[in-house]
Every structure is written in C-alpha cells, then in structure tokens.
Design brief:
The protein has two domains: about 90 residues, no CATH class; about 260 residues, Spore Coat Polysaccharide Biosynthesis Protein SpsA, Chain A. It has 15 helices and nine strands. Strand 2, helix 7 and strand 3 form a beta-alpha-beta unit. The two termini are about 40 Å apart.
C-alpha cells in the first residue's frame, strides 16, 4: 500500500466517523448519508482497487483515477464551504434572536405604564409607525415631528446599535411630545435591517392588543418617505378591507424624486425575480413603505437579519395568499439618503441576489 492510498483511506474513515456522529446527534439527512457514509465507503474501495476507480472515471470521460480524486475533492470543498456557511448563518440568527429578545423585554419593562395609560383618541391612533434607526441623529427628530404633526401618536423605534447621538435625539423627542407614545427598543449591537424587523414584529405580536393598534406602518428614519402618503393609505383602508397596503414607485414614476436610471433598472429586475422565485406579483417588492393589519402580521415569521427579510416577506405574502393593494407613494431620494452607503449602494442588489439564491437552494 502506497502512502497516498493510506492517506486516502484514513480520510475516508474520518468521513464515515463524521457521518456516524451526525446520526447520533440526529442531524443526519440524505445528503450527509451520501457524502459521509456511501462516499467514505466508495473512497476506501477505490483506494484498494485503482482499476475500479479508473473504470468508474471513464464513465465520466476521466482518463486517470488521480483526476477523479481531484474533482471529488473540489466537490467536497464546495460541500464543506456551504456546511460552514450554513452554520455561520445559523449562529448569526441565534445572536440576532438574543439581541432582539433583550431589546423587547427592556422596552416592555421601561414603557409598561405608558402603554397601559395611553388611550386611543381617533382613527389615526390605530396605527403604529415602526422605524429602524442607525446613526440617524440628524434626521430622526424631524421624522418623528413629521409623523406626529400629521396626527399620529404611536411610534416604535429600534435603535440598531447606533454609534452617534441617535438615542439622545429620540429621548429629546420623547420629552418634546410627552402625550405621545414614543417607544424605544435598543439593540446592544448593530444587527441590520432584518434584525430590526424581528424586534418590531415580535414586540407587536406580543403587545399589539395592549397598544390598542390595528395596523402596523413601516417607515424610514432618513426622510425618504412622505407622511402625506398616509392619506392615500387611509383612504384605501376606508374603502376596502385588505390585509396589506403596499407602497409602490412603479405605479407613478413621477412620485420618486431624483431616482437614477440604474436604480430604476434594478427595481424592475427585482420585480421579475420576486415573481419567479417567490410567486408574488408585486410591482415594487423592495419598497418598504407599507401598512399591514395586526391579524395579517401574526402570520409572518422572519429569521433573516440582513436584507433578505424583503424576500421572506414576499415569499410569505404568496404562501398565505394575503389580500393586498398597491398604493402610489412619494419617495424622496435626497443627497443625505443616497450618501448612506449601507442602504443605497447598487452593489447591495448583487449581494441580495446572491443571498437569495443561497437561501433558496443551499441554506437548510
């Protein structure tokens, strides 16, 4: 037996032991069984009988057994890469879940009395605005003022690990509007968009009835969204009862200020991809100006902590066959909002596309 044969056999035995360990931990699936058990056994057999390996290789047009081993090794590298990536993704999700749960508990304990005392005065009090805040000290104050001046009184803000004075700016708004229900939940570390969604959803699912709300509104902290569009949402709500009302830039392109041609193209492509991958016929799938009923919200379940949450939303929109209506909205692409690299970079669309393929095909 050559040294190479010995090394191959030892590696195959290790593979089989991995498979046995997975089976003991009840984490064995069919792919693991093929790779670790059958794959390990086949490698041992081929190591002892190189002629058999050559015959097997010729089936695939491979002349030398060594070439086949190289190809098998490449396939296994890809397999282990995705196994490690899956584990890393799961670890991130667990961390996000812990951060979100802590923020929810602290928010509930801090504002317990305010929630119980606040009574609805009019129809607008049935809405709660949900805003993710990350380093938005220069805009969050005016955003809160805009919402309150429009006649709304309930806001849930997620301070997603801001490194500037965003939290202090929010505290000042709470003092400025003591008769309004301005709730602040803080993530101890920055966990991105999807994590803020998880905190919103889980908080509202748990305490929505105590808050006396019927509808949940997504809103941005950077001044992109126009509160005046809520008049259109409310008009539609009073006319017809849908589960969701989705803002759209595609219905009237004139309602998006300073939008670039490249961004228009990306948004058009996202519409097609959403239809193909998730079955949702939504004209503007990544527009986050939306209103959802509390009953519909209870059906959603999100795990993504980055931008894939938008795809999760569209997938479940189709899965639960929820009724929705699209509303033309006025999105303001200002110099400030477009300068936020983490939010507006077109390359994020490529990252989101890759994440979508990974989550759809490889993530388990």
């Amino acid at each position: 037996m050559s040294l190479l044969q010995f090394i191959i056999i030892i590696a195959a035995i290790v593979f089989i032991l991995f498979g046995i360990d997975l089976n003991k931990r009840k984490k064995m699936n069919i792919l693991h069984f093929i790779v670790f058990i059958w794959g390990g056994a086949a490698v041992i057999l081929f190591a002892f009988n190189q002629n058999l390996l050559n015959a097997f290789g010729k089936v695939f047009g491979i002349a030398r057994w060594a070439d086949l081993l190289v190809y098998i090794a490449i396939i296994l590298l890809f397999y282990f890469y995705f196994e490690l990536l899956n584990q890393h993704t799961k670890d991130k999700y667990h961390l996000t879940r812990l951060v979100s749960r802590q923020a929810i508990n602290e928010c509930r304990n801090t504002y317990k009395e305010e929630i119980s005392k606040h009574k609805n005065q009019n129809f607008n009090d049935e809405f709660i605005f949900n805003i993710r805040v990350y380093n938005e000290e220069t805009t969050i104050g005016s955003t809160i003022d805009e919402i309150i001046n429009a006649g709304f009184s309930k806001i849930l803000l997620i301070n997603d690990g801001s490194q500037d004075n965003s939290e202090e700016a929010i505290r000042q708004q709470q003092k400025k509007h003591p008769d309004k229900l301005i709730l602040l939940a803080s993530h101890t570390i920055n966990r991105w968009w999807g994590a803020a969604n998880q905190t919103w959803y889980n908080f509202i699912k748990k305490y929505g009835e105590q808050l006396n709300i019927k509808r949940f509104v997504w809103f941005d902290a950077d001044g992109q969204m126009d509160i005046n569009d809520m008049k259109k949402f409310i008009e539609a709500i009073k006319q017809e009862n849908f589960d969701l009302y989705l803002g759209s830039r595609f219905i009237q392109w004139g309602k998006a200020e300073n939008i670039t041609s490249s961004r228009k193209i990306i948004l058009r492509i996202s519409k097609i991809v959403t239809k193909v991958f998730y079955g949702s016929q939504v004209s503007d799938p990544h527009n986050w100006y939306r209103v959802i009923s509390l009953s519909a919200l209870q059906k959603f379940d999100f795990i993504s902590d980055w931008m894939h949450y938008a795809n999760e939303f569209n997938e479940q929109l189709h899965k639960y066959k929820l009724k929705y209506k699209e509303i033309p909205v006025h999105i303001r692409y200002t110099q400030y909002s477009t300068s936020k690299w983490h939010r507006q970079k077109n390359s994020n669309s490529i990252k989101l596309g890759l994440e979508m393929i990974y989550k759809k095909i490889f993530f388990k």
